[in-house]
Amino acid sequence: MSENKELLFPDNFLWGTATASHQVEGNNNLNDWWAFEQEPNRIHDGQVSGDACRQYELYKEDILLMHELHQNSHRLSLEWSRIEPSEGKFDQKAIDHYRNVLETLHKYKIEPLLTIHHFTNPQWLRAKGAWETEAVIPYFERFTELVAREYGDLVRYWVTINEPMVYSVMGYVLCAWPPAKKSPKLAFASATNMMRAHAAAYHILHTKAKLKPIVGIAHNIRIFDPANPKSWFDKKVASMQDYSFNEVIIRALTEGKLYWPLGSGEIPGAKDSMDFIGINYYSRDLVAFNLLAPKLMFGRNFPSPEAELNLFGWEIYAEGLYRLCKRMSQYGRPILITENGIPDDTDEQRPRALLDHLEAVHKAISEGIDVKGYYHWSFIDNFEWAEGYRTPFGLVEVDFQNQKRTVKDSGKLYAEICKSNRITPDMRKGVKPRSATPKKHFNLYTYGEK
Ligand code: FCB
Questions:
Q1: Could you tell me where the beta strands, DSSP code E, fall in 78-182?
Q2: How many domains does the chain contain in total?
Q3: Which residues of the chain carry a pLDDT beneath 50?
């Protein structure tokens, strides 16, 4: 990477962090994740989200801290279950709460990027099968109408739905998330219904929101490379995984069509229903053909043996972000990096990973690719779903005993980058090099063996 050059980002680049309601707000027992957490053996070490970061109360302090750290944008999500705790009954206090949050962001000149759905469902919706059937669509439409009416004067950037594929695979294939119901059929149905709902929401926002909206989804794109680039079988399996996890979603929302393995036919309103492509990027897998793994399309996935691994046991592969920006640029719309980060309990790897990934983004921009912003996952340490609290992703540490926030080295580094709109050689000098001792890690690849 270009260690001796100063890398300047475009004017008005969006420098932000990302969070999701259930992971940071705390003490909400109205959604399906809360119910799931109460069941035995669901979350690492029997943890529950509990207080999380108590951001429902502490949002003003947190937003002030974002401002002090020079972030000019923030991605957050609405908690549907708070706003509509039972079917058709809306809670005005919760509606007002998010208005206050958005107004506070504006007070500090922090541009909100608002996610309407980030994994959690109201319990009443879960009881109806959540995203398993098309019945969800009118509910999501009604919710989006409310959201467009209530917040359309404060929000320009919208993510309708976070990671349809991750939601479906984790819930119905790997069964590590609610409803932990093994059924590839329901996985495909859920992902498809999310795209139908996205298309409907796209048009609702465009007709009902007061400010001209810029709407997309946040799509988790993982890189799948053949373990042996000379093996026809490895190449085939890697490209099948890539196609069905990454490509079908983008195709559906640009061409308006459903492709195998999701289905066939048109999705009404889905053609050209993304004003930007939102990339959530974390890692890449090497994929080897394996007859014994039909669930993963006959692939065995693992990190490259030379790679530096993070606390998840995933490869830290910054070049991947450049490759994805380049690949997604073929669709001819602006790109937002809606999430990128690493789990790191000691913050030893994060500063370097941050610089490397941002350099990858810069490389794409310098080649003419229209990347409009970067949202680091995450602003603060938070409840990491089935991993509980053991895999902190924050630029800011949270002491969960007393809710004290402490900015980590990575957070200070990111603040300098946000403030100066550039990466300088001095910043690079200040970060620790890769350690000779591999990081002790969990092995999240074992999900596939459950
Ligand atoms: C993404 C999710 C986000 C967080 C990060 C680590 O897949 O969107 O909520 O869990 O991973």
A1: 111-117, 157-162
A2: 1
A3: 450
